[in-house]
Design brief:
Radius of gyration of chain A: 19 Å
Number of strands of chain A: 11
Distance between the termini of chain A: 27 Å
Low-confidence stretches of chain B: 616-621
Number of helices of chain B: 21
Largest sheet of chain A: 9 strands, mixed
Strand content of chain A: 25-35%
Largest interface: A-B, 31 and 27 residues
Number of helices of chain A: 6
Structural class of chain B: alpha/beta
Shape of chain B: globular
Oligomer: heterodimer
Largest sheet of chain B: 6 strands, mixed
Distance between the termini of chain B: 62 Å
Shape of chain A: elongated
Structural class of chain A: alpha+beta
Mean pLDDT of chain A: 91
Strand content of chain B: 5-15%
Strand order of the largest sheet of chain B: 2-1-3-4-5-6
Helix content of chain B: 25-40%
Chain lengths: ~240, ~625
């Protein structure tokens, strides 16, 4: 049976690479004595899989993990045990059992929301307009930071929605819903390259991932059971 | 802005592997800064991944932090990219637990495991904003102490370290911290006198060294009543009763030895004559099977590691190993937890043992025959026969391994060209066995180290092989050792040269170290950082001839600079062993009969074996 788990990584853990995170989760599971399943073979490892990779330097409020169990344990109990065995900064939020026909995280999570915290900016209406207008541009060309470095990449098809919010004087947040995953990926550092020139004199002091989503008809849905059942109903 | 905020915002995004500098690992112990009576920074003069792998550090971390009024936090040497950021941003060396500047601690304790980390000690003191020389620091600055294997010859670091702790650190460190807590406001010299009175503590500034005109040591004169003529190494007599940490730190990064460590025993009494560890960690003290099973279980439960390493100088020699391994595999195998062995003895029994723990994960097996001919193996008292190695190879290839690594040394006393050819012949024989038995193409890697004579060993009087000779050997292997599936790796000649100078150096090397550091030397153990030219220049500038330390034959009546440290093994025993080497005579394992090295009577300790020792190891699989 498979459990889908949502967790967060605090700013303390933002410098972990993807392999570091996997190792941390595996060790946490072992300490928590959750009845995880092991892979067959000579070098058995815990059967779990993550959604999209969290870039180094970014923390997150909503990451996802699929975990196979050998015997049933109430989801709340799993969360309780894992939280008591987690290092500071790793927090498990919720879990639910999913049926075998629910698609894997990797195959469905296709978008993410990044938050950029800005200091030193009280944006004029036209600045806000230019920031929020980024999601309807025809082209947003940047130097690629991903695998194909040196190439120019057009982010426009993957920038879905941008919102600017003044939190207090001198402090603002920009929310960016963008493509994420294997098909098309907009990296937060690429976004910063677009945002930075617009923010002067403000500067980005923090960036985190608000969540991972499935983009369905312009809506950003969580990869939870409800999303799939309501989709079926909508289809029917 | 405090250190942590500055790090996260400005510094860490710009460096490689930032998780080296953040701390926060599971099982990290953060104690109340204000309430600790004495605060120590445990400083490891190498990168995080190396320092975190070190067993001694794990033990001391737990032992000090479990004292209610003491606090111990960690710091590792920042890699040059991080150092550059720290220097340009004015960030001092800080601890990973509470991000306090290292200069705010009462004590900084360095772990000296390798001679080529000495410049890193200087660099870390500098990054902490402290004067490098011991005599330039006063009671308003942290006390700088050191422990670890290298302290059995503390002399080259005597100018920089206030006090050395010699031997097992479990007890002496707590005693030293207690003394600092009680007397820290006293003048530095007064505190040092108090420390010198603690058994196992060596305060180099309380000794004056007089030299003959030929440069050898004439006399070592204690300058204070508290300073003993010889400082006796500390030995934990009962390992079962000693503290061992089962809440080991769980790193995020992939460190060098990324696993839980279970120390099955301390010491080794095979009496290999080149081996420093075999001499300076005597006697053998084992942990009981029951203790180890309990500690092993706790380590896995508390860390979540998927691998448990059975650490010691020779785990196959642990008398209960035949019961320990199956019991651990049975208890942990179903949780996907593996058991690993850091070193194997050269025999079929060891291969069977490795086969049991590794089941089918057939990575590389490593053996250390050390020398290529029986004559030379007898000289160094490495009790391995050619048929042992060939039998081990046969078992390994039959069991499915296709890749073997063999460790050898060159530059051993009495060595000739025949012994080099012996290595080549032996490697070829092993390869031939592999080709016959293995279904896959075999790969034999022979690692050829340059023998570096170490203090407190029977070979401490011998000259070291020169860099030119090392090149001749290498050339010989290139000419005669070419064969498919076989490769020879050589240790860097300049690195071995420098290691040799400092291993048997004295305190007149202090200025050389300082000069080389000022020219830019650091991370000398890292090939990409090591520049011999800085050292050559430093020797010239200071006017010290390195040949005096490594190329000279020492006489038995010479007073050796490191003999101010009493490791517990008699000088006469070492001389006897050296003479036996010249006569190609063997010394059996001391478990088969006492050879009178002197450790047990003079230190009031004893061999502590938990099971029955049987020499015929093949039959106890």
């Amino acid at each position: 049976m498979r459990l889908r788990i949502m967790y967060s990584l605090s700013p303390e853990l933002k410098f972990l690479g993807n392999l570091d995170t996997l190792r941390m989760l595996a060790r946490c599971l072992r300490r928590a004595r959750v009845p995880f399943a092991l892979s067959e073979g000579f070098n058995p490892h815990i059967k779990m899989s993550l959604g999209t990779v969290l870039p180094v330097g970014i923390w997150s409020e909503g990451e996802w993990l699929d975990l196979d169990l050998t015997e049933s344990m109430p989801a709340d109990e799993v969360i309780l045990r894992m939280n008591s065995a987690a290092p500071g900064g790793l927090h498990f939020i919720k879990a639910e059992y999913i049926e075998a026909n629910i698609p894997t995280l990797m195959s469905i999570v296709d978008s993410a929301c990044y938050c950029f915290e800005i200091a030193g900016l009280e944006a004029a209406p036209e600045v806000i307009e230019s920031i929020e207008g980024l999601d309807s541009k025809d082209h947003l060309k940047v130097q690629s930071r991903g695998k194909q470095k040196d190439k120019v990449k057009d982010l426009a098809p993957g920038v879905y929605r941008i919102k600017y919010q003044q939190i207090e004087p001198n402090r603002a947040v920009i929310y960016a819903w963008v493509a994420s995953g294997s098909v098309f990926n907009v990296r937060p550092d690429e976004l910063m390259e677009i945002l930075n020139p617009l923010l002067n004199p403000g500067r980005i002091i923090d960036c985190y991932r608000k969540g991972n989503y499935i983009k369905i008809e312009g809506e950003f849905k969580l990869p939870v059971k409800e999303t799939f059942t309501s989709k079926e109903q909508a289809g029917a | 802005m405090n250190i942590k905020d500055k790090l996260y915002q400005d510094i860490l995004p710009r460096v490689k592997k930032p998780a080296r500098y953040t701390g926060g690992e599971y099982n990290m112990m953060v104690k109340d800064w204000e309430r600790a009576r004495v605060k120590m920074a445990l400083a490891f003069p190498d990168v995080y991944e190396v320092g975190m792998s070190h067993l001694g550090g794990r033990i001391l971390y737990g032992i000090v932090n479990e004292q209610p009024d003491m606090l111990l936090e960690r710091v590792y040497a920042p890699w040059p990219d991080m150092e550059e950021q720290m220097r340009s941003e004015g960030l001092p060396l800080y601890s990973l637990e509470s991000f306090h500047p290292v200069s705010e601690f009462d004590v900084i304790g360095f772990s000296l495991m390798y001679e080529l980390c000495y410049t890193n000690v200087l660099n870390m003191l500098d990054l902490a904003g402290l004067p490098l020389l011991s005599r330039q620091r006063d009671q308003n600055m942290p006390l700088v102490v050191a422990g670890g294997t290298c302290t059995v010859n503390s002399e080259p670091m005597a100018d920089f370290i206030d006090a050395f702790m010699i031997g097992d650190g479990e007890e002496v460190l707590v005693e030293l911290l207690q003394c600092v807590a009680e007397h820290r406001d006293e003048e530095r010299e007064s505190l040092l006198r108090r420390l010198a009175a603690i058994p196992g503590v060596y305060v180099p500034s309380l000794y004056e060294i007089n030299y003959y005109t030929d440069g050898t040591v004439k006399q070592v004169q204690p300058l204070a009543v508290a300073a003993p003529t010889q400082v006796k190494r500390r030995v934990v007599a009962d390992l079962d009763a000693a503290y061992f940490p089962t809440r080991q730190l769980v790193p995020y990064l992939d460190i060098v030895h990324d696993r839980g460590i279970l120390e099955v025993m301390r010491g080794c009494q095979r009496s290999c004559r080149f081996c420093q560890a075999g001499m300076v960690y005597r006697p053998v003290r084992e942990r009981s099977l029951a203790t180890l099973l309990e500690q092993g279980k706790e380590i896995i439960e508390n860390t979540g590691h998927d691998e448990l390493s059975l650490a010691s100088l020779s785990t196959a020699d642990y008398t209960e190993v035949g019961n320990l391994i199956p019991a651990l595999v049975e208890r942990m195998g179903n949780q996907g937890v593996g058991v690993s062995l850091p070193s194997l003895r050269v025999d079929a029994f060891s291969v069977a043992m490795a086969n049991e723990v590794q089941k089918v994960r057939k990575t590389t097996l490593t053996f250390a025959p050390e020398a290529g001919t029986q004559r030379l193996r007898d000289v160094i008292n490495k009790n391995v026969r050619e048929e042992d190695l060939l039998a081990a190879a046969e078992s390994a290839f039959t069991a499915g391994w296709s890749s073997l690594k063999l460790y050898f040394m060159v530059g051993l006393p009495t060595e000739t060209e025949e012994d080099w050819q012996g290595i080549i012949d032996l490697v070829f024989k092993v390869r031939a066995i592999g080709s016959r038995l293995s279904r896959r193409p075999v790969k034999i890697t022979a690692s050829i180290a340059n023998f570096v004579p170490k203090p407190h060993t029977p070979f401490q009087w011998h000259p070291q092989i020169s860099r030119e000779e090392m090149r001749t050997v290498k050339e010989y292997f290139y000419q005669h050792g070419k064969r498919k599936g076989v490769s020879f790796d050589f240790h860097d000649a300049n690195t071995s040269f420098l290691e040799g100078v400092f291993a048997r150096g004295d305190r007149r090397l202090g200025p050389v170290l300082l000069e080389a550091y000022q020219q830019g030397a650091k991370f000398d153990g890292w090939r990409e950082m090591f520049q011999i030219i800085w050292w050559e220049d430093a020797f010239k500038k200071v006017g010290v001839d390195p040949a005096f330390y490594i190329y000279r034959h020492r006489e038995y009546d010479e007073l050796l600079p490191w003999e101010v440290i009493d490791i517990g093994v008699d000088r006469d025993y070492l001389i006897g062993e050296n003479k036996k080497a010249e006569a190609v005579a063997l010394t059996p394992d001391c478990r088969e009969g006492c050879e009178g090295c002197g450790i047990c009577p003079s230190f009031e300790v004893d061999l502590d074996l938990k099971g029955e020792w049987r020499h015929a190891t093949q039959d106890n699989v």
